[in-house]
TrEMBL record:
Biased amino acid composition, Low complexity: 148-165
Pfam families cross-referenced by the UniProt entry: Peptidase_M23
Gene3D superfamilies noted in UniProt: Glucose Permease (Domain IIA)
InterPro entries according to UniProt: Cell_wall_metabolism_enzyme (IPR050570), Dup_hybrid_motif (IPR011055), M23ase_b-sheet_dom (IPR016047), PcsB-like (IPR009148)
Organism of provenance: Streptomyces botrytidirepellens
Descriptive protein name: M23 family metallopeptidase
Basic and acidic residues bias: start-end ranges: 185-199
Superkingdom of this protein's organism: Bacteria
M23ase beta-sheet core domain segment(s): 284-376
Length: 389
């Protein structure tokens, strides 16, 4: 293999000068005869080239290291010596700035220096032509063959792996879609179940409300029927009672007609009886009370003659009827007297029920006095004469 140095030695130079292989100076301080740069001290002026003589320079082959910027060579380290150390650092920076300014002023006053670069294009072609092929190199061809086979195997493996990865991704996507569909179906079924449960609950509530309303309606109808039945029963009982009273009155009338005796009042209620003790009387009760409304007709129990009629103190208005056998019948507490003297027949109205005299309410006080003597029990006397008071 040819050396790069031998090729470079034969390479022509491009220059702003007049002849091949020559160039004007790069700058001050370069010695063409010695092939090295002259060292220039700080503040010293470089040597001037001979006047009228063209300088010949060595080739310049720049590299990355030669043109890389130098970092950190002029950095000032952190001083810890106090005020004097900081003053020294400031002084050093000032000196560097002054020197740099002087160098820039000197460079500005000098003429522009051209730079020549060798033409290396044909050098690369010659080097490439002299190099053997890579496959002909010992140990390299087999590696390239192995690399080709392994690349095919790797390609096949990658293809297979890619297919399996695609199938795995497709399976994963299908599983995820199926899972989402299953979740959606579960949510739909759950929603339908909730809706069905709600509808069933609403139907049950409506049915319960309807049953409750029907039960209340039936209860109200039963109560109404019961009330109507009770009213009908009461009315029937009153009618039966009235019919019974009427029948009793008719029987008494028939009895009085047949025997010649009648009850003193047709409608009444028996209250205080004969011989009953009480604060209303000075002694035991001497008659029988027939309670009835004021104005109720009072009749003669049998034919006879009225011997007395008028006010009788605690008896109030009183009528005394004397029968043919001499028995006296007293009618007391009357509100009015219809017949006050003379003959009367059985059942004839002789007065009306009242509340005169010593009384607590309207009623007829009836006394029976045989021969005009002491009183006896009126009810027993009436029963003895065929009456049923």
């Amino acid at each position: 293999m040819a050396s790069n140095r031998s090729v470079l030695d034969e390479a022509p130079y491009r220059s702003s000068g007049t002849g091949p292989g020559t160039a004007t100076a790069y700058g001050v301080g370069f010695d063409a005869g010695a092939g090295a740069r002259t060292t220039v001290g700080l503040g010293a002026e470089p040597d001037e080239p001979p006047v009228g003589k063209e300088a010949v320079w060595d080739e310049w082959n720049p590299t990355e290291e030669s043109i890389a910027p130098l970092r950190g060579r002029h950095r000032v380290g952190k001083q810890r010596g106090g005020t004097m150390a900081r003053s020294g650092a400031v002084l050093g920076v000032g000196v560097i700035a002054a020197v740099g300014a002087g160098g820039m002023a000197s460079a500005k006053d000098r003429p522009t220096v051209p730079i020549s670069m060798p033409d290396l294009a044909h050098v690369a072609d010659e080097v490439k032509a002299q190099l053997p092929a890579a496959k002909d190199l010992p140990g390299i061809g087999s590696l390239m063959a192995d690399d080709q086979g392994s690349s095919q195997t790797t390609a096949t493996a990658l293809t297979t792996s890619g297919t399996e990865a695609g199938e795995a991704l497709r399976t994963r996507i299908l599983r995820q879609a199926e899972s989402q569909q299953t979740a959606a179906d579960d949510d739909r079924r759950e929603s339908e179940a909730r809706a069905a449960a709600k509808a069933a609950a609403d139907d049950a509530a409506k049915a319960a409300a309807k049953a409750r309303d029907l039960a209340e309606q039936k209860k109200a109808e039963a109560a109404a029927k019961k009330k109507a039945a009770e009213a009908a029963a009461k009315k029937k009982a009153e009618a039966e009672k009235e019919a019974a009273a009427k029948a009793a009155a008719e029987r008494r009338a028939q009895a009085s007609t047949s025997t010649g005796f009648t009850l003193p009042v047709a409608s009444y209620t028996l209250t205080a009886g004969f011989g009953q003790a009480g604060d209303m009387w000075s002694a035991d009760h001497t008659g029988q009370d027939f309670a009835a409304p004021t104005g109720t007709p009072v009749k003669a129990v049998s034919g006879g003659t009225i011997t007395q009629a008028g006010w009788a103190g605690s008896y109030g208005y009183r009528i005394v009827l004397k029968l043919d056998d001499g028995t006296e019948i007293w009618y007391c507490h009357l509100s009015s007297m219809v017949v006050t003297s003379g003959k009367v027949s059985s059942g004839e109205t002789i007065g009306r029920v009242g509340a005169t005299g010593n009384v607590t309410g309207p009623h007829l006080h009836l006394e029976v006095r045989p021969g005009g003597g002491s009183p006896i029990a009126p009810l027993s006397w009436l029963r003895d004469h065929g009456l049923n008071p």
